[in-house]
Every structure is written in C-alpha cells, then in structure tokens.
Design a protein that fits this description.
Layout lengths: L9 E6 L3 H12 L3 E7 L3 H11 L3 E3 L2 H5 L6 E4 L6 H10 L3 E5 L6 H14 L3 E4 L6 H12 L5 E10 L2 H6 L8 H17 L3 E9 L2 H4 L7 E8 L4 E7 L10 E9 L3 E4 L5 E6 L2 E6 L3 E3 L2 E3 L1 H15 L7 H20 L3 E2 L1
Parallel strand pairs: 1-2, 1-4, 2-3, 4-5, 5-6, 7-10
Antiparallel strand pairs: 7-11, 8-9, 8-17, 9-10, 11-12, 13-14, 15-16
Helix pairs in contact: 1-10, 4-5, 5-11, 8-11
Bound molecules: nicotinamide-adenine-dinucleotide.
Amino acid sequence: MATAYAQGNVNYGVIGAGIQGEKHIEVSSLAPNATLVAVCDMNEDRARSMALKHGAKHVFSDWQELLAVDEIEAVSIALPDHLHREVTVAALEAGKHVLLEKPMATSVEDAEAIVAAQKAAGTKLMINWSNRWMIAFAKTKEKLDSGAMGDPLYCYARLNNTTYVPTQMLSWAANTRLPYWLICHRYDIARWYFGCEAKKITAVSRSVVLKEMGIDTPDFYQVTVEFENGQVGNFESCWVLPETMPYMVDSKFQLICTKGYANIDPTPPVHQLATDDGYSHEGFLAANVMGQPVGFVRQAIEHFINCCVTGSEPLITGEDGLQITRALVAMVEAAETGEAVYL
Ligand SMILES: NC(=O)c1ccc[n+]([C@@H]2O[C@H](COP(=O)([O-])OP(=O)(O)OC[C@H]3O[C@@H](n4cnc5c(N)ncnc54)[C@H](O)[C@@H]3O)[C@@H](O)[C@H]2O)c1
C-alpha cells in the first residue's frame, strides 16, 4: 500500500514566518517524517510566537544563524519575492535542501545563481508552485497524459486579487510585479501541460489605481505567450478588484485541446454565513479542519519533505524555476517596452 509519508526524518527550518511561512511551519511541524527545529524571521516576536506554537526549539532573527545549525537538513524559504536569491544560495552552500517559495526569483541572474548553487551543492531544490496539487489541475494533467484530450492547443488563465492584497496584506507589493506574484502560478500550470518553453511574449500593463495610492506596481497585466510547439497561452491578472468581493482570489482556467476541453474554476468554494450581526460570503483556498491544515498547500510541502527523506527529485526543480523565471521576466519587460520578447 502506498503511504503518504516516506519513512525517515528530516530536521527542518523555516526562514520567513509571515503569512506563507506560517504554513511551512505548521506543515513541517505536523509531518511525521520531519522535525521542525528552528524558525527565523526578522520580526523576532513573530518568529518566537510561531516557534512556541509549533514546537521549534530555536528562534532566530538572522537567517545566517539558522543556516549555521548543523542538525538542520532542509529549509523552507518564504521571504518576499525580491529577497530570494541571497538566502537561497547561502542555504544551498550550507548543504541544506531548499523548498523555495514561488516565484523563484525576480531576475534571470538571480535564478541562474540559485541553480548554479544547487548544482554545486547537490542537495534538493523545489520551487513551491503548489497549485499543481490542486485537484482540478492535477486531474487535468492526468487526462492530458492519458491522451484522452488529444494535444493541448490554447489556454486562457485568469488570476486576480482584491486591493486588500497589495494595500494591506503585503508590505512589499511595490517590490514585485503580478507576473511574479500571480501569473507565475498559471504559467507553471500551462508550461506543465504544454511540455515546452515560451518562444514569444507580448504583454500590456497599466498603472492607475495603485499608483494613486502611492504603490508603484501595475494594476493589471495581459500577456500572450506563444510556446515552442505552437501552443498559445493568454494570461490575465489584476490586483485591484473591490474588497467587497466575497473572496480575495478570483480565478479561471480554460484549456482547449485537439480532442478535449477543461474548464476549471479554481476559486475556492464560497459559503454564505449569516448571523444576527450580518451576512458574508466566505471562501477558503486552504484551511484548517479539526485543527489540521488540509489541501494542496500541505501536500506540496509534504511532497518536498518526502523528497528529502527518500532522495527523489521534487516535481518542480530549480531548472523548471529558471525556465519559468525567463518567461516571467520577459512578461515584465514586454509590458514595460511595448515590444515582443523572443526567448
Ligand atoms: N505558493 C503560494 O501559493 C504562495 C502564496 C503566498 C505567498 N507566496 C510567496 O511566499 C513568499 C512570502 O510571502 P508572504 O505572503 O508570506 O509575505 P509576508 O510579508 O507575509 O512574509 C514575509 C516575512 O518575511 C520576513 N522577512 C523579510 N525579510 C527578512 C529577512 N531578511 N530575514 C528574515 N525575515 C525576513 C518578514 O518579517 C515577514 O514576516 C513570497 O515569495 C510569496 O510570493 C507563495
């Protein structure tokens, strides 16, 4: 019988204990084949409260101190998008396996440096495009691989956020761009389905709403990608939807194939909640049920932990991350210059 957890143990550290880092802390503390040893965040109070809650014995505000702990064999890095390179390269040089949050990097040079460090170290590196573990995306991949849908021709992918995300959730929104923050999830899925790389990218973006709020990052991107084998992907993303939306994520994915069509609505199920005080729609992309995290976020992190224990290759490697980064950087460049970028 297949088991969800490979036998063994990996001693684990998490660098970055923000919204996403907390998930890595929680999942690694619960996995029976991992031991959460340390938590690091520049906000030491935050790191300490996370360590106390999830049973880590070490707390650091300086990631170099965490990397100096010999017993730590693997780390998750969940720092803001633009801060991934230095810490990831140092972690790999320290001989750690690394689960790096998406996007891998915000420049091709950074991604290349990470891949070079991983090759030199020979340890595992996975980039956490966890949406591959969402049921609809995984099942569509199975159907494609079975041949039942024929060959993929075209995809339409939309992934939006409300203004809550760039104005309240992220203090560093101006340091990233939507291709790195959102489009990368859907580009990873499209590339996975198409099985080849981008060849030509055109894109437009506009800055109106967030600019007026003093946040220097475009409101939306519309990107067309032509792939090597002729497939076309249309990627759209904005983060200026009204906060009155029932959930902060709005998403759609359509895949047209020679013999099939997948129409995926990955927006989480929204339920109605009414009390004497008011009425709301609530949605959950990932949630805790009976005190345990459930769903794709947990599964992606556990996949990496299993790879550390067994020595097998993660589903999403550094090389995948580098190829994806090339496309994402080209999207930003195409939108800024108004010129097509050929890869
Ligand atoms: N895979 C996914 O679905 C998914 C979802 C959300 C976010 N992410 C990614 O996860 C990463 C983190 O995003 P987030 O939403 O948790 O951001 P966040 O702002 O909530 O958390 C970042 C944390 O890093 C800490 N930090 C910043 N610089 C540091 C440093 N030099 N040393 C130590 N700590 C430092 C901050 O104090 C903060 O607690 C981003 O790359 C983001 O794109 C991935």
